[in-house]
Sequence to fold (405 residues):
Amino acid sequence: MSHQYKQALEGIRVLDISNLIAGPGISTNLADFGADVIKIEHPRMGDYLRNWGAKKDGVPLAWKIQARGKRLLAVDINKLEGQQIVKTLAAKADIMIENFRPGKIEQWGLGYDVLSAQNKKLILVRVTGWGQTGPYKERPGFGTLAESVSGFAHITGQPDGPPTLPPFGLADGVTALVGTYAAMMALYYRDTQDAPGQVIDLSIYEPFFSILGPQAIEYDQLGIVQERTGNRSPRGVPRNSYETADGRWVSISAAAGNLAFRVFKAIGREDMVDDPKYGSAANRLANGDEIDAIIAAWIKTRPLNEVLATFEAHQVPIAPIYDIAQIMQDPQYQARNTVCEVADEDFGVVKMANIPPRLSLTPGRIRHAGRTQIGHDTVQILKEAGFSDKEIHDLDARGIVKIGA
Fold:
């Protein structure tokens, strides 16, 4: 008889007062694995993400992803009574997430000294552009700025083109992942060592900088400044994107070990395997332009299906470059349910990216898409916190909270 396991984070309470992508991304990850996430928004404006991106019938679609599985509470934290509500909820929370400028929650009377005095087990995740210390700490910070100062934009793009920024919240997404595992490490330490909670100081630029390869040590030891190389890698050949005869594109990553030799054989150039010019990784890197031109010419005369079949037969790492419409039709995505259907109160069912880590006993689950109504769960949450119906409606009437319709 099979045992029914709980979700991994069932029983964990998260209070999220952050906005936009990085901070709320942390609470989305926690909600996916069963945490009870209370997402606080401003009663009138809501989360800023509600006004970003495409809408259908006035409903923001990105919000459906970011607010999934969360309960929505509308509270004006700028007002004293709103601050008291946050303090009341923080007293019973395991994790709290904020992304205001350093010192802002202290101005509201919600600093960690105050919150931990009433709840010594609380873990506070503080997300800012630049961190809680340093000369830039007071500056506004967004993922775009992190993508710039981290060095990412400088190494991204064509050699004769401008530095290139990603067309989505890449640095924010990385920060959300790092923030999630930081919160889980703090939670593990707290619970296994019978220890108090702690503060997590999470900038956006540092997690992003940390994933950009060995640039720091290469500069420190060799004075190397990595430059833009398009889709080529500065560390190995062949690695690039190539256009097929039917106007599709593929990417190849075959710089490691003897993978390059498989490429040469796949395109009928066995002679290149024995040529000293291409025999070592260093020589291939030195002759990268020539190698790329040979591969590109072969691929350009053949349609996508033939290119894929030929390289796959030679066990060369290759993949087509997809747009989202092609992703939705791909059998690998379909077999693993990588794009999943989620229940939604506005559209019945919507599709979104599924939860990537696949835990065998305690898998994640998207309970529902983000609720559209600001303050959707205000009454329920405040009742749980001990507020009476009369108190809740009075707070609503004075604009301290908002009750969802």
Q: What stands out?
A: The chain has 19 helices and 14 strands. The two ends are 44 Å apart (CA to CA).
